[in-house]
Every structure is written in C-alpha cells, then in structure tokens.
C-alpha cells in the first residue's frame, strides 16, 4: 500500500484556504487541487510549481494492422521525429507552459536509431518493434515485459532526480486506444462495447469492428486479466507497460502526476491495481472523448481539471491543464489571509 500525500499538511492547506481573503468556497476546484498539491509537497504554503516534466512513451501496436485505426503505423515514427523537432501539438503547448519534454521509443515499428536526427537516449530502452496483436497473441513476452517495466521505472527516477515537482506521461502510437480500452475493460470487468471509443475518428463500421477486436482480446486472455501484471503483458504494449511503471514509481517516490487522456488513465488504473494507493498521487488533467477514460477516472475517484473535447494524446491535455494547477498553487501561496487584511 502506497503512503498517501501528507494528511496533516492537507488539513493545514485547507485551513489556509479557508482563511484567505476570498469568499468561502469561491476558489472551487482551484482550492481543492491546490490543497492536494500542497500535501504532495509536504508544506503549506506550497512551493511555486516550476519544474514540470513530460515523458512521451512511443510504441506501435500489432493490432493497428487489423482495421482499428484511421491511420497507418508509419505515422508513429514520423510523430516521434516531429516531437524531437519541437513541432507537434504538445510541443507548442509545452513550450508555452514551460514543460520539459522527453521522448522515448519503446516499440516503434521503425529503426529510429539509424536516423542521425534521433538521439541515442530516445532509442536506448527500446524493447521491440511493435507489440503483438492483442486479439491474436500476447503483447509482450515475459522478458520483454520485464524490460519495458524497468524502462518506465528508470525514466521516472531519472526525471525525479533531475528535480521534477510534477510528472506527466504522454503517448504516441497508432492504434493505442485499442489496448488501452482492453486494459480498462479488464480492470473494471466490463465488456468491450462499454469502454471502446473512436480513437483517431473511425466511422461506425470501423468502431463496431474495433469493439469486436477488443472483446476478442479479452476473451483470449480470460481469467489472466485478473492479474494486473498479466493484463499488461497480454493486453497492453511496451510503451503502455513502461508508462504504468513510470506512474507506479512516481507514486512510490511521492511525486505527483498530472494524468492525460485514455492511455495515461488506463495506465493509472492499472497502476492502482498493482500498487494500491497510487491514485492519491494522481490528478486528472482533462476529460478525453474516449468513454473508457471517463469510466476509469470515475473508478479512480478523479475529476478532470479541463473538459475541452480533446483527443490528441501526446500528453497535450495534461500540459494544457498545467497553468490551471500553477494558478491554483499561486492562489494558495500568494493571496493574503483575511486576518492580515482585517489587522
């Protein structure tokens, strides 16, 4: 069981919030998330939120070749290069909101190490080229699973050692909402139709096919899905396994995480299964359009900061929420107490 953020500090933060020169309850969710952040930092008022780090876990999925996505797998490698060039959607948001970005190739179906524009750090932890098609075979062998898990742990520790106050996980992988839906379905004991969304924008016929693929994967794995590690090995991918390990490691180290969309939250739900109590270290950045993400957030007891209809992935929704969290922290830090005003 993971130790939660400091309960006494949370109470102190709530007391400070109640004493601010603002009407009672006027700060709404901003007050709530500020108190949560203060508890994760162990002090009131909390320090300014200056060091936010996003790690984008990239990988391809064998299931993408089976009609579940509107785009081909070749897009994954191209997007990794775009991240590295600082020209992707999340790149623009991260630059605007002073969030550092690190990109890791865990399972991209291309030899990015051969590209001189791709630094060795990006590919150093690569597990394989594409994960298995989950409706036909396990995503990873045990050895591959262990390597992906270790990669996620190592990267989280790297970012924490470098001074991260807040971590974000991002995703890049064509077809990744299919294994993510399977992960959520396995965790919640739900049929595929209730958790499967349209990903990159597939039509009705493709969605029906995607539901069938997710259900086939769940049926293939059967009772093994009751074990969260087996859920990951059989139903996820190298990048999603690494993401889950990254989230568990952050919670174990007492470093808060701002969750993104479907992939991030599917991994967070699995992290909570593996390490009960981890969810207390997570806040939800935004609500995506994927039904499985909302179901997983409800199970985790998390209410998103933003609801903008985003479905970009990449960590973009969480990065877009960073200024909201920064503003909340500033309010709890810098607004005068009513007792000081009244003298």
TrEMBL record:
It comes from the Bacteria. Transmembrane segments: none annotated. Coiled coil: none annotated. The active site is at 314 (proton acceptor). GO terms for molecular function: nicotinate-nucleotide-dimethylbenzimidazole phosphoribosyltransferase activity. It catalyses: 5,6-dimethylbenzimidazole + nicotinate beta-D-ribonucleotide = alpha-ribazole 5'-phosphate + nicotinate + H(+). It holds the Pfam family DBI_PRT. Its EC number is 2.4.2.21. Gene3D superfamilies: 1.10.1610.10, 3.40.50.10210. Keywords: Cobalamin biosynthesis, Glycosyltransferase, Transferase. The keyword Acyltransferase does not apply. PANTHER family: NICOTINATE-NUCLEOTIDE--DIMETHYLBENZIMIDAZOLE PHOSPHORIBOSYLTRANSFERASE. Catalyzes the synthesis of alpha-ribazole-5'-phosphate from nicotinate mononucleotide (NAMN) and 5,6-dimethylbenzimidazole (DMB). This is Nicotinate-nucleotide--dimethylbenzimidazole phosphoribosyltransferase. It comes from Nocardioides malaquae.
